[in-house]
Amino acid sequence: MAFPGKNLLSAANGVLIWDVGELNEIKYDPEKADLSARYIAQADSCLALPPLTVTDKKSSFSEDKHYYCTMAPYWWPEERNGKTVYVNRDGQVNPQSLDMDKAKIAQLGDRMKLLAIAFFLTEDRQYFDAYREQMDVWFINPETYMYPDFLYAQVVPGQNGNRGRSVGILEGHGFNDVLESYRLVNSVKSIGPRRKRMFTSWFRELGDWMASSEQGKQQSKADNNLGVSYDVTLLNISLFVGDETRAERLLREFSERRTFKQIEEDGRMPGELARTKAFSYSVYCLDFFVDFYLMADSAGFDLYHKDKARFNSAYAYLLQFVDNHEAFPYNQIIGWRDSTKSLMTQIGRLKRINPEIEEELQAGASVEKREDLGKND
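The structure assignment produced for this chain is given below.
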């Protein structure tokens, strides 16, 4: 397969993952006015909120407030021989982990997405100004910006000198919405050369850190959703900053390193099935795959159809349990309903690059909307 370098280099100028065709329909189709109004109302609620920043947190593992800092969510304190140690309880979130920055990075992506969409739909300057203010506070202003790394992400207290772990890079997935929001805003009105330069420089530093740090190298080797998410975020950053060499390598290696390594011929994903929410984590991983395939397609690289038979087998495997939870041979302690909805949404997303996907799935289960989704949840 020839590699489309020219398209790859220009890909960063356009929206890669979001469905810009749908956004244009919402903008111009009077029958979608209600959906447009909903987006605008959500963006209006953001206008009344102060910008998010990593420098405002209740606790941290670093004395320097500019470090993004989170605690590993599934680790809990236990008293052993008069000492407090932290032990893993997979799938059970320790409330102590909610006091740091993890929620903020997801909120950042959501907020910048809503402001960007509202500006795209209305071209109202208030959304543009609020968007730039949030960009400045998180990425540019010396008093409030985040260092471009995840050195203190997903710390287990008392371990590794209270430094982060490779899995903490997963939390950077929210930056994909940040990059998409920038592309959407900039398609309507230039963000300005100074901000563009500083914003791009920030992401270039983050991409270099992900590729060269020990945490990043370990995450790249992960044989589960962590590895796929890593590739998605690093590819997006590489396309954005114009690192063609790194982007091309990620695209060329993805099928062998992810699709055919992490998905068995029968559609099972061993890296996810060992979890206490095996169905949910399988669906979660597939969502990252879809992100990657959509980005590749936007860059002119038809990776999905190359991987289609193996990748679709993962959907076929999971769909057979949508209305038959008892037959699922792995643990799923909670979350059937939400994960099933996500599964159907992903199939809808894939129709952008494979309109026939519903017909091609061989699970014997309908992918149409069900009123009884998660009835056994």
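Interim note for the steering committee: The two ends are 44 Å apart (CA to CA). Residues 363-377 have pLDDT under 50 and may be disordered.
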